[in-house]
Design goal:
Largest sheet: 4 strands, mixed
Number of strands: 9
Oligomer: single chain
CATH superfamily of the largest domain: paralog of FGE (formylglycine-generating enzyme)
Strand order of the largest sheet: 7-6-5-8
Number of domains: 2
Radius of gyration: 21 Å
Strand content: 5-15%
CATH topology of the largest domain: paralog of FGE (formylglycine-generating enzyme)
Order of helices and strands: HHHHHEEEEHHHHHEEEEE
CATH architecture of the largest domain: Alpha-Beta Complex
Structural class: alpha+beta
Number of helices: 10
Length: 393
Amino acid sequence: MASGTQKTMQPARDARRAPRGEPERTLAALQEARDRTLALVAGLADADLERAHSPIMSPLAWDLGHIAAYEDLWLAHRLGGLELLRAELAQRYDAFETPRPVRAEIAILGPAEAREYMRAVRARVVEALQRGGVGDGVVCEMVIRHELQHSETMRQTLAIAGLLPAGEPALAPMEEPPGWVRIAAGAFQMGASQEGFAYDNERPQHPVELAAFAIAQRPVSNESWLRFSDEGGYERREWWSPEGWAWKQREGIGHHPAIAAGDPRAPVCHVSWFEAEAFARAREARLPSEAEWEKAARASGGRDAPDGSGAGALAAAGQVWEWTRSAFRGYPGFRAHPYREYSEVFFGDSYRVLRGGSWATAPRVASVTFRNWDLPQRRQIFAGVRLARDAIS
């Protein structure tokens, strides 16, 4: 899941010129997100917060400082008109300027300092919003969701380190057998409407015409994945793409340890796109496109979804992110807002789109149109797979 960057200095669209709104609900939502963040790290030793648990993840203390710097930039500085509280930290906590591999090598605030920075930023944001209002609310909502997204990213780090709180991951067993649902051919409106908050990559809403297809009612389970592994899934070259096979061979990849440790009937988790593609090929299926996924989600009653003919599609959605076959690109007429580093710099063939949310995704973030993305070799994300086929006979 993308995390925000501070790089651009372009102001949010008319945020400071828009009619003032009541700040109480915004401040309550900001506090709810903060409570979620602080509870996640409350029981951890400073050493665990400062350590880089993986080269592809940030030290947790960096995440805390970044959350504060992002809030200070957008709410205190851009919206409230204040100078940055600590301008010398801006580049250090800019997600684009300071990529993950170097975050453990630079001087960052220690855990106590980072918490104090968070408290100081929040105090000035409260004052600024109470004095000047929330504008059109777009920037405020972006900052709330930014912190909620980071709580999931931090959980990925905790999972790698074996430090997840008791009871996590919260993956529930599914009913068997899964079955298939046929989604009729036809057009639908893909993407977010102009009403409410959405990220730039979810817009503009546009018509998409699809042929009939079938989609699995449920994600693939741990039990099914272990069967694939036992049947030679990681040895059968014909099931893998050239890029996926090269990655598997180079890294010595087998199934993720969490798969054998999980409930057999729970959705498989910590699966890369390369593995998901190979599994689908082994089952004479494929990954859905993100358009197919969204149409099926709307048909099964996803948020803001019109009634459709595919009732029952996408059962157990939201337990794991679901890989699609689609590369991450802008929709026709895409316009970067409020800064291009959120989405546009990741467009192209390198990243694959995931849909649906996971057990660790805050409900405020997950929606039928939300687009997550990651590299095809990544397994730290709480991702599984739902199969598709061209049609049901």
